[in-house]
Amino acid sequence: MKRPSRSLMIFGVLGFVFLYAPILSLVVFSFNESRLVTVWGGFSTKWYGELFRDPQILDAAWVSLRVALASATLSVVIGTVASFVLVRFRRFRTKTLLSMMITAPLVMPEVIIGLALLLMFVAMESILGWPGQRGIMTIIIAHSTFGAAYAAVIIQSRLVDMDLSIEEAALDLGAHPVRVFFDVTLPVIAPALMSGWLLAFTLSLDDLVVASFVSGPGASTLPMVIFSKVRLGVSPDVNALAAIIIGVASIGIIVAALQVSRSKKISQN
Amino acid sequence: MSEAIAVTGLKPWTDPNAVPFLKINNVTKKFGAFTSVNNVSLEIYKGEIFCLLGGSGCGKSTLLRMLSGFEDLTSGQIIIDGQDQAGIPPYKRPTNMMFQSYALFPHMTVEKNIAYGLKRDGLPRAEIATRVTDMLSLVQMGAFAARKPHQLSGGQRQRVALARALVKKPKLLLLDEPLGALDKKLREETQFELIKIQESLGVTFVVVTHDQQEAMTLSSRIGVMTAGKIVQVGTPREIYEYPQNRFVADFIGSVNIFEGRIAEDGESHVVVACPEAGLGIYVPHSIAGVIGQKVAVAVRPEKMQISKGDLGDLRNKLSGTIDEIAYMGDSSVYQIRLDSGKRVRVNQSNLFRSEESSLNYGDRVNLGWAGNAGIVVTS
Q1: Contact B103 A188 (CB under 8 A)
Q2: What is the nearest CA distance from A163 to chain B, expressed in angstroms?
Q3: Which residue of chain A has the CA closest to B90?
Q4: In this structure, are residues B318 and B338 in contact, taking their beta carbons and an 8 Å threshold?
């Protein structure tokens, strides 16, 4: 391969600076001694300590974590079923429509998703009497709608690549179709399920808009708390919190990327 | 377990009292308006290696998939060992299949791949272990038991796939282009190994292939397929020496076809008037035809002789000019242009070592073949 030219290198570096300088400064200032966010007052980890003594933040983190775990899992289940229908079933009349409907949440503005879900929950409450109160459950459902869309796209591409004769071989060797799914299909698509799950998890942790629409009293997610705190002025403990979130998200993304590249290597061989 | 046919030399298909092991009765398979398999009937006997031979899209793989239960029949019946297979799903059939892509489970080791079928049968662990070990040594893969499929070469994967399909001791083993993915040299070695394994286990094999050489080497009998139909069933020798129609003659090996009309129809011979060859071709077998009927005579290139001198008392003699010579080492292929303009292919073994061929481009040669070398093919 050709070595990139000097000007290309400069633009590349500028691009990365543009992307990562704000994040880096946030992480650096999370170790700031001073209460003022923009003035460096020496190195300290006290804001991290402060963070873990703040019950509001801890509660919100716990809510966010539970929502993310549940909605990521639900997303993968829905996404897997949808992918199977789209990839494995013979052509049926509404297949294209279904395929479009599954991917629509990817491009739909979050405000609209949030508003639509809120209206639906309100209507359901008055007609069915459920959900009685908006809270963690409604956020999980809402996050699953777009989480499932992302998971479906990832799982679908893996299913399309999968050699069908592997499943036939298992059938031929005496395995019942249900058995085949758990013994052969699931292990083969496992890397895709994993990366789909991680993506849905990160998206859920990250979401502010949809959660704000569908949440209720006593169920504030971490982004909601941060946003409300920032409106009162940026405090250094928010920086510390953000630094932790960045760390967790980075680990998740790296693991997902490694999974995908490893499974690609195996299937290429 | 019955002895394999190659060992005993028996020909159950010639015995009117023999009971076929696999019966395919008037099987048809349609995909929408397209008929993939068209009214096929076959009887295959225990211990045979039966090859379904045909070009791509001739329906041979579909037929195999119907035997294994992956495709439903549009009409007809498949009976294996006296049991009608209608409505029996693949996982309950007494057949096992070796897939063209091998279809090894990528996440399992070689050992687990082979053990998978036995585990599904719920066999005791100790028995599974011994049978897997036996199978691994049969295919000479004992040293690779702990490897994953992606750490194996093509030839090794082929062995694992074979072992996995054989370990359940199926009544019928179905092989879809078993040697297709191997290179030429490995393929030739593996062919004989496959026959050896089949002989030692006595399992009945049905093999699908498009490679006539493979079919000739492996099989006890060959069924030649085209456009969803079986056009001829016979031993490799029968198929090669006595093709029943032009398609078979042309598909198996190479052949020279002379078009003509029946000029003389005797008790034990026919003469076909053939303007292309410029003579009446003598064939020493009678056919059910009428004088003047359009037929063709098929003559294999290696059964023809050429010489600059006299050919002696060969029954059919022509002359022509050498157009092309291809030196193949063990033999040479000559393209001869007859006076009518028709080109004929002749194979001559290179029996003696010599620096130069006595025959050259543009040479005028005599060409001939013995009476019994030709065969009349209708349709």
Answers
A1: no
A2: 8
A3: A172
A4: yes
CATH numeric code, A43-264: 1.10.3720.10
For B103, which of A166, A177, A269 is closest by C-beta distance? Answer: A166
DSSP state string for A120-171: HHHHHHHHH--SSS-SHHHHHHHHHHHHHHHHHHHHHHHHHHS-HHHHHHHH
- Amino acid identity, residue B272? V
Candidates A158, A162, A172: best to mutate against B (most CBs of B within 10 A) is: A172
List of domains in chain B? 5-94+170-247 (3.40.50.300), 254-377 (2.40.50.140)
What ipTM did this prediction achieve?
0.80
**Which token pair is A167?**
């499943």
Q: How far apart are CA B6 and CA B198, in angstroms?
A: 9
Residues of A within 8 A of B168 (CB-CB) are 173-174
Residue in B96, B99, B150 nearest the CB of A269? B150
Q: pLDDT tens, position by position, for chain B (379 residues)?
A: 344 565 556 788 888 888 889 999 999 999 988 999 999 999 999 889 999 999 888 999 999 999 999 999 999 999 999 899 888 999 999 999 999 999 999 999 999 999 999 999 999 999 999 999 999 988 888 899 999 999 998 889 999 999 999 999 898 999 998 887 778 888 888 888 888 888 888 889 999 999 888 888 888 999 999 999 999 999 999 898 888 888 888 888 888 888 888 888 877 788 888 888 777 888 877 777 778 888 888 889 988 888 887 777 778 888 888 888 888 888 888 999 888 888 889 988 887 777 666 788 888 888 888 888 888 887 6
Query: Is A188 an interface residue toward B (CB < 8 Å)?
Result: yes
Q: How far is CA A117 from the centre of its chain?
A: 18
Domain ranges (residues) in chain A? 43-264
